[in-house]
Amino acid sequence: MNFSLIIPCFNESKNIPILIKKYQNFLKDKQNELILVNNGSKDDTDKIIKKYLRYRNIRTFNVEKNIGFGYGLKKGIMFAGGKVIIYSHADLEVNPKDVMKSISIYNKKNFKKKIFIKGNRINKIKNHWSLLDIFFSYSLTLISSILFQKKIFDIHAMPVLFTNDLKKKISYYPNDFSIDLSIYLAAKKNDYKIIRFPVNFNKKKRRFGEGSSDSLKKKFIGSCEQLYQLIVIIFKPN
């Protein structure tokens, strides 16, 4: 396999048919695989995914109980067989065209190993970010940069693309969204060439389901969880 695209799905049954349609160009290359992780969904996500297993390069991994985005993503990463791993969300806030762009950047540069490509979200106001969204995003970036004494920014931007060998260098996989930071830091600490490219993360693109930061309460709880994970990551360095 060349590219393994991993998409954790939690109660995304209505989004999955749209995703499959939007990733047709990716699926045309039979050396690519799309891994849909049913991340403990309570709706009929598993049933919908199984309908698409007629595609030879669509695979699935089933997580019985939802523990968090990071847990589902980790299972997908370990399950992936591609030389290059990509991951993204199922909610369509991440444009599938940006996933294809990350592949184009990789192919254009003809990298062989130790490469890490990550989106950089731009035009936040135009993409319907609230001031609170922006505040929490920049606060996490600032705190993380200070604690780790490394220049890191827009930690949760997607898509993320990296060569398969990086997963052996990640010693800690948080169960929540802090997994983005852990993977990002592993790439930095192991001197991977890091490329950031502009992406539009449009919060109005979610058609169905609920997000992890749809309310102030969710934002606050999520931020507290990630601050805790920052401390854990410091004491469990990659």
Structural summary, described in words:
Helices cover 39% and strands 18% of the residues. The protein is an alpha/beta fold and 238 residues long. It has a 7-stranded mixed β-sheet with strand order 3-2-1-4-6-5-7, with helices on both faces. The chain has helices spanning 16-22, 24-28, 45-51, 69-79, 96-109, 131-148, 179-189, 216-235, and strands spanning 3-9, 33-39, 58-63, 84-87, 115-121, 160-163, 193-199. It is globular and about 50 Å long.
**Main beta-sheet annotation:** 7 strands, mixed
**Gap between N and C termini, in Å?**
27 Å
How many separate helices?
8
Structural class by SSE content: alpha/beta
Strand order of the largest sheet: 3-2-1-4-6-5-7
Helix content range of the residues, please? 25-40%
Q: Overall pLDDT, averaged?
A: 88
Q: What Rg do the Cα atoms give?
A: 17 Å
Query: How many strand units?
Result: 7
Overall geometric form: globular
- pLDDT under 50 segments (min length 5)? none
SSE topology string: EHHEHEHEHEHEHEH
Estimate what percentage of residues fall within beta strands. Answer: 15-25%
